[in-house]
Amino acid sequence: MQVPASAPNPIAPDALLVEVAWEVCNQVGGIYTVIRSKVPATVQVWDERYCLLGPYFPHQAQGEFEPIDEYELEQLRRDDPFAGAVRQMRAQGYEVQYGHWLVTGKPRVVLISPFQVYDRLGSIKTDLWEHHGIPTPDHDDLLHQVEAFGLLAKIFLQILTTETVPPQRVIGHFHEWMTGVAIPALRREQVPVHLVFTTHATLLGRYLAMNDPNFYDHLMQVNWAAEAVHFNIETAVRIERAAAHGSHVFTTVSELTVRECIYLLDRIPDAVLPNGLNIERFVALHEFQNLHQQYKAKIHEFVMAHFFQSYSFDLDQTLYLFTSGRYEYHNKGFDLTLEALARLNYRIQQSGMEGQVVMFFITKRPFHSINPQVLQSRAILDEVQETCEAIERQVGERLFYAAAAGSDHRLPDLSSMVDDYWKLRFRRTLQSWKTTNLPPVITHNLVDDANDDILNFLRRANLVNNQHDRVKIVYHPDFVSPTSPLFAMEYGQFVRGCHLGIFPSYYEPWGYTPLECVARGVPAITSDLSGFGDYVMQTVPDHEDKGIYVVKRQEKTFDESAEELTDMLWNFVQLNRRERIMQRNNVESSAELYDWKKLRVYYDRAYALALERE
Fold first, then answer.
1. 483 and 450, same structural domain?
2. Is 8 part of any domain?
3. What are the GO BP annotations of this UniProt entry (predicted)?
C-alpha cells in the first residue's frame, strides 16, 4: 500500500456524507479518537455536505455539543438537508438534537437518544430475528440501546433521502457493530443510501486473541458461530456480520484485520482505511525539545519522591520508558515487554554501563486507593523542597548583605547564615523521609493484587526495584491526569517527558499509542501484529531512522520476539544524549506522514466506490 502524494477529493459535488458512530460526542474508547481526529480533514473537503450521527447521552455530550436553536434551524432548513431531516423527525414526534461538535472543524452533528423507542423494543427484536436471524437476550441494556439507535438511524437516513433532490445522493458510513443494526434494514427496505461499513477490529477476533496465545495460527479453523455463543457475544457478532454483508462497501483499518474479516465475517474487505491523527494539534515546532525538558523535570520530581527515600541515582543518567493502554496483558504485549525488561536489566548489570532505566506501566485496573507510603513520600519531599527554598531565600539575603557590607572578598561560611530553626527542620524532615524499604513497584493498592499478571511477573523475576536493579518499575494502574497527586500532568505532557514508548502488541487492529508518541516527537516501538506497525513497514522506508521500531511477532516464538525487543532496548540505552536529540528531531519531522490530510484519501476512495454501487 503506497501513501498517496496528494489527497484530491474524488467525490461528486452532489454527494452528502453522514458518518455514523457510537462515539460521536460520546468518549468510550479508541473510535472516539479516530472520528474526532479525522473531523478537520473531512470538513476541509466536505464542508456543509458532511454530518455526524450518534446516540444522545446528555451527560457525555454536555461538554462538547453545542445545539442549534429552533429559529436558526428554521433558517437553515431551506438549504441544509440535514436540518430538514431533523425537523421532519421532530414533526413525527421524535426528540432529535442538532448542532455542532465542539472540536476542530465544528462539524454538524445529529444526536438521537435511543431510550425514546424502548417501548418498541419488542417489535425491533422481532424484526431482527425474523428478517436477519439475530436473536436478542432480554436483559442486556447495551444491546437494547444499540438496537433502538439502529431503528432511529435508519429513520433519519430514510427521511434525509426525501430531503435530497436528484442528482444529490447520500453516503452513510457506519463504524463498528454498535451502529451496524441500521444497515440490513436499509438494504432490505431499499432506501437509496450508499452504505459503507468499517470494522476497526472484529468483535470475535478481540475475544479470541485474548484467550488464545496462538490466535493467528488457529484463525482459519475458527467456528465463528460456536465461539460467539461460547463468549456470550452472539447477538453482537451477528449484527457485525449482517452489517458487513449488507454494506455496499466493506472496509477495515489494516491489512492484519483483513484476515480476521475473511475468516470471522466471511467477506473480503473492499478497502483498507489506515488511521491518522490531526498532527496540527501536536505540533510544537522548535519548542518540542524544550517541552521534553520541561515535562521530564516533572517526571524527575515523581522519581525522586518514589525512589530517593530508599536510595538515589543520577537523574541525568536516567532514561524514562513507558507503555500504556487498556489492561490486556497478552494482547497489548505487556508480557513481552516485561520479559525484555528483565533481560535488559541483566544485560546492563553485566555490562557495567552507567545509568538507570525507569519503566512506567500506565493502564487502568480496579484499585482501593493510592498506596499511602507513595503519597506520604511525595508529601514529605514537597516539604523538603519548601524547606530548601526557605533556606535558599534566607542565605541569599544574608549573603547579599555580607557581600555589600564586608571588605573580605572570600565566600563566607554559608551554613552560619542559616537559623537553627531551619537547620533542625531540614534534618528532621530528611530523617522522617528516608527509609530502608524498597521503593514499591506499584503506586496503588489493587483490588486483586494476588492475581495481577504484571505484579506476578515482577515477583517471579525479582524485578522489584532493588538498588542493584538497573531497570526500575513503576506500575501506575490509573490514567495520568492533572488531578493526580503523583504526576499532576496531562497524559500528553507525560509522553513528551519520556524518552521511548514501548507497544509490542500481539493483537492491535491499528494502535494509536505509538502514533501519538511520534506526533509528540518521542520514538516508539510497535509490532508487525499491530495495524500501525504493519502500515509503517509497508510505507515508511528507513523507519528506524525516523524513530519507529517494529518488533517481528508474526511467525516468531515468544522467545525470539523477546530477544529482538531486548536488542532494541539495549541499542536505545546505549545512545548518547546528542544521538537521542537527533532521533527526536527525525521523529518529529516524520509525523506529517500520518496526518489525516494525507490518509483521508483512502476514505474518499471508499466513498467513490460506494457511489458506483447500487
1. yes
2. no
3. glycogen biosynthetic process
